[in-house]
Amino acid sequence: MRLYTRHFLLLLILVVGLLGLSSCGQESATNASQPVTSANATPVVTQPQTKGLGTATKSAPNLNIDQLLKPVLDIPLPGSSARFDYQSLDSKAGLLFIAHLGDSSLVVFDIKNNKVLSELKGLGGIHGVLVIPELRRVYATATSDHQVVVIDETSLKILARIPAGNYPDGLAYDPLEHKLYISDEGGDSEPVIDTQANKTLASISLGGEAGNTQYDPVSQHIFIDVQSRNELVEVDPKTDSIISRFPLSDCQNDHGLQLDSAQRLAFVACDGNAKLLILDMQANMKVLSLQTVGSDPDVLALDSDKQLLYVACESGIISIFKVARPTIQKLAEGFLANGAHIIAVDNTTHRVFLPLPEVNGKPTLRIMQPV
What we know:
The chain has a single domain (56-370), classed as YVTN repeat-like/Quinoprotein amine dehydrogenase (Methylamine Dehydrogenase, Chain H, 7 Propeller), CATH 2.130.10. It is 9% helix and 51% strand. It contains 2 helices and 30 strands. A hairpin with a 4-residue loop joins strand 16 and strand 17 (221-226). The longest helix is centred in the first third of the chain and has 31 residues, at 2-32. The radius of gyration is 27 Å and the shape is globular. The N and C termini lie far apart (85 Å). 44% of the residues are buried.
């Protein structure tokens, strides 16, 4: 009996052991199929193939910039090989207005015939420029003169000069209230101008340096980067008061700003840590995705038809993203040229315009096309 009992016990132990291994294997396979979660998980997407608030950041091989963006023309511009700043495009009229900061001049370029039409000088340290076709006016910030200059789009005659804070930079227009909003990068405020009377109406206290400013036609509100506070603020133009402040904890020095009103997305370029934030305008500016870009990102441009977002950097690096909610995908990135920190897009032809301070010894407008 002992021998049989010993054999029986050994057989029983073997069977139990095999059953235990099978159970452990099933448990391991079950655990492997479940996502790892954390009580401290946030909606910020920082890595490819992760998700936040229903938006996926797709992983794909990044192309070099010259594989996606092909040169069309290089056209010499007037003036010296000095810094350019903002551009503004009137697609219907076929006119591109380029701020030549280093020359304190405004260059007018004909995009239909690919030629320079005119150059308006005497705009001290011009930074921002905004054409408003319905008014047939061009507004420019003469930063060193602390003014906004009002220009007739057809004749290029200066119609008015309006005081606009300490360091007027970017511009945004509210067509319903007929107000112009100016980013005062050195005055902790946002001056507001009445475009019908050409006079200053108010100055909105921001509590920090203003970065870029944009108008959203859906909410009919103004959005302003407050770069020294790492905040995005929302202003009601009816009262010119701040109604919301959105902290941007993942951003250092939020300077660049672009809105995709149709998809309810806001894009914020952070020049202090070379990041791009994609925010959900339908969910209190929750961060949907956090992307890397080149160092010192500056100007953003959106081709809404092709759903392409361009990020131009002081380092000369251009990043291109495909933004088709709920997917955000970096398509290409790479060095384009020195001084390629300003970019504009024609949503009709999809051409891209980059004024460069020096190509073969001359200031040049580089025209490119996505493939």
